[in-house]
Structure formats: structure tokens, C-alpha cells
Structure prediction request, 156 residues.
Amino acid sequence: MENNKKIYLGSDHAGFNLKEKIKDFLGSLGYEYEDLGPKSYEAGDDYSDYAFLVADSAAKSGGLGILICNSGVGMCIAANKIKGIRAVNAYNVQIAIKSREHNNTNILCLGQDYINWQLAQEIIKAWLETDFSSEEKHHRRVQKIIDQEDKEEINV
Prediction:
């Protein structure tokens, strides 16, 4: 992936420490990022607030997002509620790569309590460096997801 897309970052209290490390890591890789919060540790804050903020920013700008909480699950669920977002909770490098190749994910969610710093770096780097597949079947499938966002009911 080209380094020209801005990466929006967000976490809750449970992911704050990892988010702070990720900022330096992204900078070392040459990526531009914007930290959407929290700016300091805030015990008891709500993951959904930051997930919505990051996902909305990524959807509107065509950028990417990285969200961190305890497990990554809450962030992923919340981010996927925003139109135009395809978020993945990646817990290994293979999932990160497949999510980009097959699903063109634009938000990466991480669980600070379930991955170590070395694995987090490997997942982030793999996710950022993987492009969406050129295979028609993957484009067709993602387009069906995009089309469904505008519908009120499911037609299969």
C-alpha cells in the first residue's frame, strides 16, 4: 500500500499504551497519522466513542484507521456500524493480510491484552503493506457489502 493515505488512531483506556507505541512505529515507517484520542489516559472512557470518531474520519477521507482496546472486539463491532467501514480484529499476520487482500479492510482493530508489541508491529506492517486483490471475485463480494449499506432490507 502506498504511504499516501492518512491513518487515524484511537483507543480507549485499555488500549492507550499500545496506541502510544504505534504512533512512533508509524512515524518510523513514514506514515502520516492523526491521533483522535484519547490524548491522555482516561480510566473508564468508552471504546465506542473513539471507534465512531476514527471510523467516521476514515470513511469520509478515504483513509485508514487503527483502533485499540482490551480485546479489539468492541472497537471492531462499533467501527463496522459506520457506513463505508470494513474493520477487522486481527490477531495474527495472516488474518491482517487476508483482510486486506480479500475484504479491502480500512480499519485495523487490535487487542492490547492479547498480542505483544512484536506481534502488533508485524500485524500493522503486514496490513499496511498489503493491497486489495485484483481478482474480480473479491471486488464483486466487497461491492455487495457496499451496496447493502444503502438498503433497508436484505435481498439475496
